[in-house]
Design brief:
The chain is about 20% helix and about 30% strand. By secondary structure, it is α+β, with helices and mostly antiparallel strands. It has one domain. A six-stranded mixed beta sheet has the order 1-4-3-2-5-6, with helices on one face. It is globular. The N and C termini lie far apart (about 55 Å).
């Protein structure tokens, strides 16, 4: 049994790593709702106003291209205390505005650096790389989408 003065894991507040500084962190449901309403109110076109609010994991889009616009916010992981995942606004090659999420430090790190430097929006492709040192493990990355590269109809990389 935990000591009565010890906070439950859900009550612990973790700070994101320094390389994610400057990206808003949302830890409270009310703040999440407020941020969502702020995004709605800041829409500058019917397309951005009426974009599908559901988010999908970046892993579901390996091989696909997106124009990544902004890391909207960081949310604490419910699965791995102390970790964060990013909620990212992107545009598909068909022009649909979507929200994707990732906890990959490689993809999130590259997007955070690009955002900090003012390099977003930028068209990139989602790739999954197998680990050379840890067989069976892989990691997600975003890389520049080559000129003329488009997402195949079936979502599989060429």
């Amino acid at each position: 049994m935990a000591h009565p003065d010890t906070p439950a894991a859900a009550e612990l507040v973790y700070e994101p790593p320094a390389w994610l500084a400057g990206i808003p962190v949302i830890t409270d449901v009310d703040d999440l709702v407020e941020a969502a309403v702020a995004r709605i109110m800041s829409a500058t076109s019917p397309e951005s106003l009426l974009a599908n609010p559901e988010s999908a994991g970046l892993r579901d889009h390996v091989g696909e291209c997106f124009t990544f616009n902004v890391i909207t916010c960081l949310l604490p992981s419910a699965i791995r205390p102390g970790d964060y995942y990013g909620l990212i606004e992107a545009v598909t090659d068909d022009g649909e505005i979507v929200s994707v999420t990732t906890g990959s430090p490689y993809a999130l790190g590259r997007l955070a650096k690009a955002q900090t430097e003012g390099w977003l929006p930028r068209r990139m492709r989602v790739v999954e790389l197998e680990s050379a040192t840890h067989p069976g493990q892989s990691s997600l990355w975003v890389v520049d989408a080559p000129k003329g590269f488009s997402t195949p109809e079936d979502g599989e990389p060429f």
